[in-house]
Amino acid sequence: MRSKNKPDGQESRPFVATAGRAQAAPGGEGAGAGQELTLRPPRHPVDRRAVRWWTSQAVVIMAPPVLVLALLGLLIPPARFWLLLPALVIAVPGVVYALVMPRWRFRVHRWETTDDAVYAASGWIWQKWRVAPMSRIQTVDTVRGPLQQIFGLAGVTVTTASAAGAIKINGLDHALAADLVERLTARTRHTPGDAT
């Protein structure tokens, strides 16, 4: 199976995952006999509301120290410069981060499930592609934090028998996430393998 184009349009050499580890496929050929899975970009983007969710997370992290420093700077005139300067130093990169990071992550984050595996791409500066064969999946869970609930989103955590840890698909519509968990649970129940 040949790899599909990368999200940026460049052709990529496929990787083959065997027993949970990815290896370069010889000659660019992919899976065979149902035991090897091609590591490739997943097809489905996360929900568009994830951009607002990630932006809100960035603001929640950045705003409190900036507001506290600015308020103290206004209330304590002799220390105004020494309080407003760090507020500005935190605010400027924080605003850039809140504007750039969510849109960049939206372009990178992708997911897909097939009869054989779960595929996920995540990150923004450090990007990661993961594939988990159905036979290696141990548990499938839904995660909904307070901000995710406000935006009607959820995350799916696929725990595998791998030292690399769980695969996390964040920024899905909560109904889609619940359906995905149900489908993956049913599919892994009928997939031969010991998940170890």
From TrEMBL:
Location of the region described as Disordered in the Swiss-Prot/TrEMBL record: 1-41
Listed Pfam families: bPH_2
Keywords: Membrane, Transmembrane, Transmembrane helix
Highest taxon listed in the record's lineage: Bacteria
InterPro entries: YdbS-like_PH (IPR005182)
PANTHER family: TRANSMEMBRANE PROTEIN-RELATED, UPF0699 TRANSMEMBRANE PROTEIN YDBS
Name of this protein: YdbS-like PH domain-containing protein
